[in-house]
Amino acid sequence: MADDYQRIMKAIQFLKSSTLEQPSLDETARHVGLSPAHFQRLFHRFAGVSPKRFLQHLTGDQAKKLLKQSVPILDTSFAVGLSGPGRLHDLLINVTAVTPGEYKSGGINLQIKYATHQTPFGRCFIAITERGICQLEFIDTDNGAETSISRLQKAWPNATIVKDQTVTGTTIQQIFSPLKKPVDKPLLLLLQGTNFQLQVWQALLRIPEGCVTSYGYLAKKVGKPTASRAIGTAIGNNPISYLIPCHRVLRSDGGIGGYRWGADRKLMILGKELCKVEGLKS
């Protein structure tokens, strides 16, 4: 899976940098060191569409069009609020914030299990408590796991932190390889942040799969219409990648924008979501 991720990432980077030249399937396959037939199968297994079709979803006018099309759906989503659980494809997600007492104690009597795993979008680090996932982030460097552990220890200095590949692996399977039939058991998220950060992260959970929004729109929806920069900072501090979908926020001009775990990975995740939704509609 790791090699497949690297090849798909390399192909996307190549196509992005060669948009004007419109490289052929053969040229793209050669760039990633595969035969055209093998590359076609690999990419179609990942995205369900051709590489060129994949990128069309998030380039130029198409991205601007998608931003406009998403507004009425988002308006309805925000009007309904978060009285019910958020849904990410076939997953139910329930969110709990740490209490002031839990924050002050630094995680006393709390056990956190962590590990790293391969996913369709590269290697990730996950940390889980009995009350839910408290950290999920993609890592690319050799010392990425150590950095993630340090961040976890800083957030929960008095917790018992142990490695557990089995327990975390079950959750990773539920996140990235969900059953085709929706399950009733929700994924739980345990969030630690300021009131403003929690408000922004909850707003992100209201963005349905297949929709995108802008920093300015989110600022208005959380009652801070002039705080686009603060919104961006809160998004950048999102501790739970993918599940809290900060990858669905674009620049107002349709540009892909920044992403804590890399702009190309953001394009991969969002592009695959949009291709999936397109497939469901067709």
Write a brief structural summary.
With 282 residues, this protein is an alpha/beta fold. 48% of the residues lie in helices and 17% in strands. A hairpin with a 2-residue loop joins strand 1 and strand 2.
Entry keywords:
single chain, 282 residues, alpha/beta, four-stranded mixed sheet, three-stranded mixed sheet, 9 strands, globular
Report on this structure.
It is globular, with a radius of gyration of 19 Å. It is built from 12 helices and 9 strands. Helix 2 crosses helix 3. Strand 4 and strand 5 form a beta hairpin. The mean pLDDT is 88. By secondary structure, it is an alpha/beta fold. The strands form 3 sheets. A 4-stranded mixed beta sheet has the order 5-4-3-6, sandwiched between helices. Strands 1-2-7 form a 3-stranded mixed beta sheet, covered by helices on one side.
The largest beta-sheet arranges its strands as: 5-4-3-6
Largest sheet: 4 strands, mixed
Oligomeric category? single chain
- Average residue pLDDT: 88
Query: What proportion strand?
Result: 15-25%
- Spell out the helices and strands N to C: HHHHHEEHEEEHEHEHEHHEH
**Radius of gyration, rounded?**
19 Å
Helix run count = 12
Query: Helicity level, as a percent range?
Result: 40-55%
Distance between the termini: 28 Å
List segments where confidence is low: pLDDT < 50 over at least 5 consecutive residues: none
